[in-house]
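User: Sequence recovery, please. Input:
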């Protein structure tokens, strides 16, 4: 029994370190992507080949994005990006055909660091009595 406990602890530790890999987004088959030809493939053809886009351009309805990511997850690193594929398709608004098709990968992404600045709020500068009085003043005025 004394040998069983360290073995179980070791097995639990190893099992906790195993990586789970998930694919997120739409899986784009290379054979279907190869069928899209700028100048001839229509918007409807793209829908049939790839399905609905992951998203569209914010200010440009003629730009579609198809995003696929493979992410590994362990207890110590829950968001390990393995691969990313972004297919950007621009349509010609006059003919409704594919104007350009661009593929981007993980290497094209940019790391974004959150800003260290803080937004000041009045709740941090007012004391508890000031806040309570302010709330009571709102009730009295009604």
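Assistant: Recovered sequence (142 residues):
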């Amino acid at each position: 029994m004394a040998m069983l406990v360290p073995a179980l602890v070791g097995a639990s530790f190893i099992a906790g370190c195993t990586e789970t890999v998930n694919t997120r987004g739409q899986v784009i088959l290379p054979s279907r992507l190869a069928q899209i030809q700028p100048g001839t493939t229509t918007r409807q053809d793209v829908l049939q080949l790839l399905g609905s886009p992951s998203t569209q351009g914010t200010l440009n309805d003629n730009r579609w994005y198809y995003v696929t990511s493979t992410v590994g997850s362990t207890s110590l690193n829950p968001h390990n990006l393995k691969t990313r594929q972004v297919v950007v398709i621009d349509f010609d608004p006059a003919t409704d055909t594919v104007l350009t098709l661009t593929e981007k990968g993980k290497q094209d992404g940019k790391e974004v660091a959150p800003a260290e600045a803080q937004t000041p709020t009045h709740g941090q500068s007012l004391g508890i009595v000031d806040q309570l009085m302010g709330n009571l003043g709102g009730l009295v005025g009604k």
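The first strand starts at residue 20 and ends at 25.
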